[in-house]
Amino acid sequence: MGTENFYLAPMAELSHRALRELIEDFGGCDSYFSEMISASALLAGGQFEKWYIDAAPRPEKCVFQLVGADSEVISKAAAFLDKLECGGIDLNMGCSAPLIRKTGSGVAWMNSIDRAAELISRVRPQVKRRLSVKLRVGYKDDFEYLVRFCRMLEEGGVQLITLHPRTAMEKFKRLARWEYVGQLGKELKIPVAGNGDVGSADELVRRAAGPCDAVMVGRAAVRQPWIFAQARKKEKQIHSGKEEKENCEEIKKEEPDIEETGLRFIELLAKYQPPEFYISRARRFFGFFCDNLKWGNYLKNRLNREDTLTGVEKIWKEHFIEHEE
Question: What global pTM score does this model have?
Fold first, then answer.
Protein backbone atom coordinates (compact mmCIF):
# COMPACT_ATOMS: atom_id res chain seq x y z
CA MET A 1 0.00 0.00 0.00
CA GLY A 2 1.31 3.47 -0.88
CA THR A 3 1.94 6.30 1.56
CA GLU A 4 -0.73 8.63 0.13
CA ASN A 5 -3.67 6.66 1.40
CA PHE A 6 -5.71 8.89 3.75
CA TYR A 7 -8.59 10.82 2.15
CA LEU A 8 -11.18 13.27 3.46
CA ALA A 9 -14.63 12.34 2.17
CA PRO A 10 -16.86 14.71 0.20
CA MET A 11 -19.59 15.84 2.62
CA ALA A 12 -22.27 18.45 1.96
CA GLU A 13 -21.78 21.62 4.03
CA LEU A 14 -18.66 20.14 5.62
CA SER A 15 -15.89 19.46 3.10
CA HIS A 16 -15.04 23.11 2.50
CA ARG A 17 -11.94 25.21 2.98
CA ALA A 18 -12.52 25.92 6.67
CA LEU A 19 -12.49 22.22 7.54
CA ARG A 20 -9.47 21.59 5.30
CA GLU A 21 -7.60 24.40 7.03
CA LEU A 22 -8.45 22.91 10.42
CA ILE A 23 -7.26 19.46 9.39
CA GLU A 24 -4.08 21.00 7.96
CA ASP A 25 -3.46 22.59 11.38
CA PHE A 26 -3.02 19.05 12.71
CA GLY A 27 -0.86 17.81 9.83
CA GLY A 28 -3.32 17.24 7.00
CA CYS A 29 -4.24 14.21 4.91
CA ASP A 30 -3.34 13.01 1.42
CA SER A 31 -6.42 14.04 -0.57
CA TYR A 32 -9.27 16.40 0.25
CA PHE A 33 -12.45 15.66 -1.70
CA SER A 34 -14.68 18.73 -1.96
CA GLU A 35 -18.35 18.82 -1.11
CA MET A 36 -20.58 18.15 -4.10
CA ILE A 37 -20.35 20.81 -6.80
CA SER A 38 -23.44 21.07 -8.99
CA ALA A 39 -22.28 20.91 -12.61
CA SER A 40 -25.24 22.97 -13.83
CA ALA A 41 -24.87 25.65 -11.12
CA LEU A 42 -21.15 25.92 -11.83
CA LEU A 43 -21.70 26.54 -15.54
CA ALA A 44 -24.51 28.98 -14.79
CA GLY A 45 -22.15 31.07 -12.70
CA GLY A 46 -24.03 30.74 -9.41
CA GLN A 47 -23.17 33.38 -6.83
CA PHE A 48 -21.75 30.87 -4.35
CA GLU A 49 -19.80 28.67 -6.75
CA LYS A 50 -16.51 30.48 -6.10
CA TRP A 51 -16.66 29.21 -2.53
CA TYR A 52 -17.20 25.62 -3.67
CA ILE A 53 -14.18 25.74 -5.98
CA ASP A 54 -11.78 27.33 -3.48
CA ALA A 55 -9.17 24.55 -3.37
CA ALA A 56 -6.93 26.09 -0.71
CA PRO A 57 -4.98 25.54 1.48
CA ARG A 58 -3.49 22.65 -0.55
CA PRO A 59 -4.89 22.89 -4.09
CA GLU A 60 -2.66 20.06 -5.28
CA LYS A 61 -4.46 17.77 -2.81
CA CYS A 62 -7.99 19.03 -3.43
CA VAL A 63 -10.24 16.86 -5.61
CA PHE A 64 -13.34 18.57 -7.00
CA GLN A 65 -16.41 16.34 -6.89
CA LEU A 66 -19.07 16.95 -9.52
CA VAL A 67 -22.72 15.95 -9.30
CA GLY A 68 -25.33 16.13 -12.04
CA ALA A 69 -27.61 14.16 -14.33
CA ASP A 70 -26.62 15.45 -17.79
CA SER A 71 -23.44 13.99 -19.27
CA GLU A 72 -22.79 16.97 -21.55
CA VAL A 73 -23.18 19.46 -18.70
CA ILE A 74 -20.93 17.40 -16.44
CA SER A 75 -18.25 17.11 -19.13
CA LYS A 76 -18.22 20.88 -19.63
CA ALA A 77 -18.01 21.46 -15.88
CA ALA A 78 -15.18 18.94 -15.63
CA ALA A 79 -13.28 20.74 -18.39
CA PHE A 80 -13.69 24.02 -16.50
CA LEU A 81 -12.48 22.58 -13.18
CA ASP A 82 -9.59 20.73 -14.80
CA LYS A 83 -8.08 24.07 -15.79
CA LEU A 84 -7.88 25.10 -12.13
CA GLU A 85 -5.12 23.98 -9.81
CA CYS A 86 -6.37 20.80 -8.16
CA GLY A 87 -5.56 17.18 -7.50
CA GLY A 88 -8.23 15.72 -9.73
CA ILE A 89 -11.90 15.49 -10.70
CA ASP A 90 -14.29 13.05 -9.02
CA LEU A 91 -17.71 12.04 -10.32
CA ASN A 92 -20.45 11.42 -7.78
CA MET A 93 -22.18 8.14 -8.51
CA GLY A 94 -22.92 7.32 -4.90
CA CYS A 95 -25.09 10.00 -3.27
CA SER A 96 -28.39 8.36 -2.33
CA ALA A 97 -30.23 11.42 -1.01
CA PRO A 98 -33.76 11.28 -2.47
CA LEU A 99 -33.58 14.74 -4.06
CA ILE A 100 -30.32 13.82 -5.79
CA ARG A 101 -31.35 10.32 -6.80
CA LYS A 102 -34.72 11.35 -8.25
CA THR A 103 -33.08 13.78 -10.67
CA GLY A 104 -30.93 11.01 -12.14
CA SER A 105 -27.82 12.18 -10.28
CA GLY A 106 -25.64 10.46 -7.70
CA VAL A 107 -26.28 6.75 -7.28
CA ALA A 108 -28.87 6.87 -10.10
CA TRP A 109 -25.94 6.59 -12.52
CA MET A 110 -25.46 3.03 -11.28
CA ASN A 111 -28.86 2.05 -12.69
CA SER A 112 -27.43 1.78 -16.19
CA ILE A 113 -23.93 0.72 -17.24
CA ASP A 114 -24.55 2.14 -20.72
CA ARG A 115 -25.64 5.54 -19.44
CA ALA A 116 -22.66 5.75 -17.08
CA ALA A 117 -20.30 4.67 -19.86
CA GLU A 118 -21.58 7.48 -22.07
CA LEU A 119 -20.81 9.95 -19.26
CA ILE A 120 -17.26 8.65 -18.85
CA SER A 121 -16.67 8.79 -22.61
CA ARG A 122 -17.58 12.49 -22.57
CA VAL A 123 -15.68 13.44 -19.42
CA ARG A 124 -12.43 11.53 -19.90
CA PRO A 125 -11.16 13.57 -22.90
CA GLN A 126 -11.80 16.80 -20.95
CA VAL A 127 -9.75 15.87 -17.89
CA LYS A 128 -5.96 15.81 -17.89
CA ARG A 129 -5.73 15.29 -14.14
CA ARG A 130 -6.74 12.16 -12.23
CA LEU A 131 -10.32 11.14 -12.91
CA SER A 132 -12.06 9.21 -10.16
CA VAL A 133 -15.53 7.97 -9.26
CA LYS A 134 -17.15 7.53 -5.86
CA LEU A 135 -19.98 5.01 -5.80
CA ARG A 136 -21.95 2.49 -3.78
CA VAL A 137 -22.55 -1.23 -4.22
CA GLY A 138 -25.57 -0.33 -6.34
CA TYR A 139 -29.33 -0.48 -5.91
CA LYS A 140 -29.10 -4.14 -4.87
CA ASP A 141 -26.51 -6.18 -3.04
CA ASP A 142 -25.14 -7.60 -6.27
CA PHE A 143 -21.35 -7.82 -6.27
CA GLU A 144 -21.17 -9.22 -9.81
CA TYR A 145 -23.01 -6.17 -11.15
CA LEU A 146 -20.67 -3.90 -9.18
CA VAL A 147 -17.65 -5.56 -10.78
CA ARG A 148 -19.10 -5.16 -14.28
CA PHE A 149 -19.90 -1.52 -13.59
CA CYS A 150 -16.41 -0.80 -12.27
CA ARG A 151 -14.68 -2.62 -15.11
CA MET A 152 -16.56 -0.34 -17.47
CA LEU A 153 -15.24 2.67 -15.52
CA GLU A 154 -11.71 1.29 -15.64
CA GLU A 155 -11.88 0.63 -19.37
CA GLY A 156 -13.21 4.17 -19.88
CA GLY A 157 -10.16 5.73 -18.25
CA VAL A 158 -11.20 6.20 -14.62
CA GLN A 159 -8.04 6.02 -12.49
CA LEU A 160 -9.43 5.61 -8.97
CA ILE A 161 -12.65 4.22 -7.53
CA THR A 162 -13.87 4.89 -4.00
CA LEU A 163 -16.43 2.38 -2.80
CA HIS A 164 -18.87 3.11 0.01
CA PRO A 165 -19.94 -0.51 0.46
CA ARG A 166 -23.63 -0.06 1.13
CA THR A 167 -26.57 -0.25 -1.26
CA ALA A 168 -28.44 2.83 -2.45
CA MET A 169 -31.22 2.49 0.12
CA GLU A 170 -29.10 1.56 3.12
CA LYS A 171 -28.22 4.32 5.56
CA PHE A 172 -25.94 3.78 8.53
CA LYS A 173 -28.00 1.10 10.29
CA ARG A 174 -26.14 -1.70 8.54
CA LEU A 175 -22.37 -1.87 8.76
CA ALA A 176 -20.43 -1.17 5.58
CA ARG A 177 -19.37 -4.35 3.75
CA TRP A 178 -15.64 -3.72 3.84
CA GLU A 179 -14.92 -7.16 2.42
CA TYR A 180 -16.31 -5.82 -0.88
CA VAL A 181 -13.56 -3.19 -1.01
CA GLY A 182 -10.83 -5.81 -0.96
CA GLN A 183 -12.69 -8.10 -3.34
CA LEU A 184 -13.27 -5.29 -5.83
CA GLY A 185 -9.60 -4.36 -5.70
CA LYS A 186 -8.69 -7.89 -6.78
CA GLU A 187 -10.97 -7.57 -9.82
CA LEU A 188 -9.51 -4.28 -11.08
CA LYS A 189 -6.13 -2.93 -12.11
CA ILE A 190 -6.77 0.59 -10.81
CA PRO A 191 -6.66 1.58 -7.11
CA VAL A 192 -9.76 1.08 -4.98
CA ALA A 193 -10.35 3.15 -1.85
CA GLY A 194 -12.84 2.26 0.86
CA ASN A 195 -15.20 4.52 2.79
CA GLY A 196 -17.59 3.86 5.67
CA ASP A 197 -17.68 3.28 9.45
CA VAL A 198 -14.14 4.48 10.15
CA GLY A 199 -14.62 6.05 13.57
CA SER A 200 -11.15 6.37 15.07
CA ALA A 201 -7.44 6.58 14.30
CA ASP A 202 -7.10 2.92 15.32
CA GLU A 203 -9.82 1.92 12.86
CA LEU A 204 -8.23 4.04 10.12
CA VAL A 205 -4.86 2.34 10.60
CA ARG A 206 -6.49 -1.08 10.64
CA ARG A 207 -8.40 -0.46 7.43
CA ALA A 208 -5.35 1.06 5.74
CA ALA A 209 -3.37 -2.08 6.55
CA GLY A 210 -6.04 -4.24 4.90
CA PRO A 211 -6.65 -5.16 1.26
CA CYS A 212 -7.43 -1.69 -0.10
CA ASP A 213 -5.41 1.08 -1.69
CA ALA A 214 -6.68 3.99 0.40
CA VAL A 215 -9.16 4.82 3.16
CA MET A 216 -11.60 7.72 3.00
CA VAL A 217 -12.92 9.19 6.26
CA GLY A 218 -16.04 11.34 6.60
CA ARG A 219 -17.90 12.05 9.84
CA ALA A 220 -15.02 10.94 12.07
CA ALA A 221 -12.75 13.55 10.48
CA VAL A 222 -15.25 16.25 11.48
CA ARG A 223 -15.52 14.87 15.00
CA GLN A 224 -11.74 14.45 15.20
CA PRO A 225 -9.92 16.76 12.73
CA TRP A 226 -6.68 15.29 14.11
CA ILE A 227 -7.60 11.71 13.11
CA PHE A 228 -5.23 11.57 10.14
CA ALA A 229 -2.30 12.90 12.15
CA GLN A 230 -2.94 10.40 14.94
CA ALA A 231 -3.24 7.54 12.45
CA ARG A 232 -0.02 8.50 10.68
CA LYS A 233 1.84 8.61 13.99
CA LYS A 234 0.34 5.31 15.03
CA GLU A 235 1.51 3.73 11.77
CA LYS A 236 5.06 4.98 12.36
CA GLN A 237 5.07 3.68 15.92
CA ILE A 238 3.81 0.28 14.83
CA HIS A 239 6.47 0.08 12.14
CA SER A 240 9.13 1.07 14.63
CA GLY A 241 8.15 -1.84 16.85
CA LYS A 242 6.63 0.00 19.81
CA GLU A 243 4.04 -1.82 21.86
CA GLU A 244 0.43 -1.05 20.93
CA LYS A 245 -0.49 -0.14 24.52
CA GLU A 246 2.35 2.37 24.75
CA ASN A 247 1.40 3.76 21.36
CA CYS A 248 -2.24 4.36 22.36
CA GLU A 249 -1.23 6.01 25.63
CA GLU A 250 1.13 8.41 23.85
CA ILE A 251 -1.53 9.39 21.31
CA LYS A 252 -4.12 9.97 24.04
CA LYS A 253 -1.76 12.42 25.79
CA GLU A 254 -1.54 14.48 22.61
CA GLU A 255 -5.26 14.95 22.03
CA PRO A 256 -5.91 18.64 21.32
CA ASP A 257 -7.75 21.25 23.31
CA ILE A 258 -11.42 20.86 22.36
CA GLU A 259 -12.39 24.41 23.25
CA GLU A 260 -9.54 25.95 21.27
CA THR A 261 -10.21 23.70 18.27
CA GLY A 262 -13.86 24.77 18.19
CA LEU A 263 -12.87 28.44 18.36
CA ARG A 264 -10.34 27.88 15.59
CA PHE A 265 -13.07 26.42 13.37
CA ILE A 266 -15.31 29.45 13.99
CA GLU A 267 -12.41 31.71 13.06
CA LEU A 268 -11.76 29.79 9.85
CA LEU A 269 -15.46 29.69 8.97
CA ALA A 270 -15.70 33.48 9.24
CA LYS A 271 -12.56 33.89 7.15
CA TYR A 272 -13.17 31.42 4.34
CA GLN A 273 -16.96 31.08 3.89
CA PRO A 274 -19.63 33.64 2.95
CA PRO A 275 -21.94 34.95 5.71
CA GLU A 276 -24.87 33.11 4.13
CA PHE A 277 -23.10 29.83 4.96
CA TYR A 278 -22.05 30.57 8.54
CA ILE A 279 -24.94 29.04 10.44
CA SER A 280 -25.57 25.96 8.29
CA ARG A 281 -21.86 25.08 8.29
CA ALA A 282 -21.46 25.78 12.01
CA ARG A 283 -24.43 23.57 12.89
CA ARG A 284 -23.17 20.76 10.70
CA PHE A 285 -19.66 20.91 12.15
CA PHE A 286 -20.64 21.16 15.81
CA GLY A 287 -23.28 18.49 15.30
CA PHE A 288 -20.35 16.07 15.11
CA PHE A 289 -17.64 17.91 17.03
CA CYS A 290 -19.74 18.21 20.20
CA ASP A 291 -19.58 14.42 20.52
CA ASN A 292 -16.16 14.97 22.08
CA LEU A 293 -17.85 16.49 25.15
CA LYS A 294 -19.67 14.93 28.11
CA TRP A 295 -22.56 17.38 27.75
CA GLY A 296 -22.38 17.36 23.97
CA ASN A 297 -26.08 16.90 23.16
CA TYR A 298 -27.05 19.71 25.53
CA LEU A 299 -24.51 21.98 23.85
CA LYS A 300 -25.71 21.02 20.35
CA ASN A 301 -29.23 22.06 21.26
CA ARG A 302 -28.02 25.42 22.56
CA LEU A 303 -25.88 26.05 19.47
CA ASN A 304 -28.74 25.11 17.14
CA ARG A 305 -30.86 27.90 18.61
CA GLU A 306 -28.28 30.52 17.64
CA ASP A 307 -28.68 32.34 14.33
CA THR A 308 -25.42 34.32 14.27
CA LEU A 309 -21.81 33.16 14.27
CA THR A 310 -21.11 35.57 17.11
CA GLY A 311 -23.84 33.86 19.11
CA VAL A 312 -22.37 30.44 18.35
CA GLU A 313 -18.97 31.58 19.58
CA LYS A 314 -20.48 33.07 22.76
CA ILE A 315 -22.37 29.87 23.64
CA TRP A 316 -19.28 27.75 22.89
CA LYS A 317 -17.11 29.81 25.27
CA GLU A 318 -19.78 29.87 27.98
CA HIS A 319 -20.05 26.09 27.93
CA PHE A 320 -16.44 25.66 28.99
CA ILE A 321 -16.86 28.15 31.80
CA GLU A 322 -19.96 26.36 33.03
CA HIS A 323 -18.43 22.89 32.65
CA GLU A 324 -14.77 23.17 33.54
CA GLU A 325 -14.43 19.39 33.65
Answer: 0.93
